[in-house]
Amino acid sequence: MRVLLLGFGNVGRTVASLLTVERPRFPGLNSLDVQVTGLVTRTKGALANPRGINLTRAVTEIRSTGSFDRANPEFLRVTATEALANLEYDVLVELTPLSIEGKGEPATTYVKTALSRGRSVVTANKGPAAFAFRELRDCAAKNRARFLYESTVMDGAPVFSLAESSLKGCVVKGFSGILNSTTTYILTRMEDGADLEGALEQARREGFVEADAAHDLDGWDAAAKVSVLANALMNASLTPPDIVRQGISGLTPAKVKKTRAEGKILRLVGRGWREGSRVRGRVELATLPLNHPFAGVQGSGSILRIETDLMCPILITQERPTLYDTAYGVLNDLLLLSSHPTEGRPG
Ligand SMILES: NC(=O)c1ccc[n+]([C@@H]2O[C@H](COP(=O)([O-])OP(=O)(O)OC[C@H]3O[C@@H](n4cnc5c(N)ncnc54)[C@H](OP(=O)(O)O)[C@@H]3O)[C@@H](O)[C@H]2O)c1
């Protein structure tokens, strides 16, 4: 499978590392046959090689100088748009940042361009599925390609693949969950006495804060995840501005301490539910009793509760995810593609 990689930040470099130097540690990846034939960043340059880029060199160059070396024989002057239209690839792996202000662009256009060429897409970026889910799903089906986005919610934990393969025949009535690692991490550290800024700085060092931290603090990242879940699991057409939203900006250590002293805990909770024929979504700073199933979620952990008409509620939890979990979600989607390359009706 020839891959065009857009974005080579925290997630892209971890994917590259798992495909190269760290690969021998994970024999389960043996069947993954991937050559990255194009790699494009916004400011650090681009690389291309139809036989497969030297990813180890790419990671080393970025780590040592912060950009690709112009003397690298694979260095190419190309924009993402040009690469999408002209390079040879079977799958686009889209790992650029979430843009709320840009309503998911330019990533959504990148994804649409690849799908329209009949190329499947794997993305960890919530933007495309949060702002244009139906259009992209239909475009994939029309062009006999696949649009996969497992890492957009709870990193590599099986959310969409579980719903698709193991909840057949069930109608999802609603969901709720703690979906944003940064805010849970900050709230957990504030419970231990840290202030918001210090806790945010620590989360940033761990690599899971969004490029724009306000996306996490103001609830936009959680709202984007609620949109993706509602669209994918409940066939909705919600976008992040449709989600009633609260964040944790302005929260003081005193408020966190007081809540804790009352035997409760604060967590940013996202929900989706049906109201007649409509699907609604909300993100709120909820006060939870300590015996609530969500109250045990600490640090960078997440939890999702899915309610269906047929099954009792299902809980998916994730403890201490790292960038490897996100990168694994991307690799899992690539493995899925290698066994099921197309879906939907012929175009
Ligand atoms: N980090 C996590 O734990 C995590 C977890 C789940 C999902 N995600 C999602 O995964 C995606 C990637 O996250 P990340 O942490 O790797 O982000 P990141 O470290 O900020 O890296 C983003 C990469 O995208 C490139 N880029 C930005 N705009 C571009 C454009 N228009 N065309 C081509 N490349 C472009 C950047 O290039 P420059 O460096 O040159 O600007 C950079 O290489 C995001 O959407 C994020 O929300 C991340």
Question: What does this protein structure show overall?
Answer:
The chain is of the alpha/beta class. The protein has two domains: 2-156 and 324-339, 3-Layer(aba) Sandwich (Rossmann fold); 164-320, Dihydrodipicolinate Reductase, domain 2 (2-Layer Sandwich), CATH 3.30.360.10. The protein has twelve helices and 13 strands. The protein has helices at residues 10-19, 55-65, 80-86, 107-116, 126-142, 160-166, 181-191, 196-206, 214-217, 220-234, 253-261, 323-339; strands at 2-6, 35-40, 46-48, 75-76, 91-94, 120-123, 147-148, 172-178, 244-245, 264-275, 278-289, 302-308, 314-318. A hairpin with a 5-residue loop joins strand 12 and strand 13. The chain is globular and about 65 Å long. The two termini are 22 Å apart. The model has no long low-confidence stretch (mean pLDDT 95). NADP nicotinamide-adenine-dinucleotide phosphate binds next to helix 1 and helix 12.
Distance between the termini: 22 Å
Q: How many strands, which pairing sense, and closed or not: the largest β-sheet?
A: 7 strands, mixed
Low-confidence stretches: none
Query: How many strands?
Result: 13
What's the architecture of the largest domain, going by CATH?
A: 3-Layer(aba) Sandwich
Strand content: 15-25%
Indicate the CATH class of the largest domain: Alpha Beta
Class inferred from helices and paired strands: alpha/beta
What general outline do the C-alpha atoms trace? globular
Order of helices and strands: EHEEHEHEHEHEHEHHHHEHEEEEH
Please bin the fraction of helical residues. 25-40%
**CATH superfamily of the largest domain, called what?**
NAD(P)-binding Rossmann-like Domain
- Report the total helices: 12
Largest sheet: spatial strand order: 4-3-2-1-5-6-7
| Overall structural domain count | 2
* Associated small molecules: NADP nicotinamide-adenine-dinucleotide phosphate
Residue-averaged pLDDT: 95
Radius of gyration: 20 Å
CATH topology of the largest domain, what is it called?
Answer: Rossmann fold
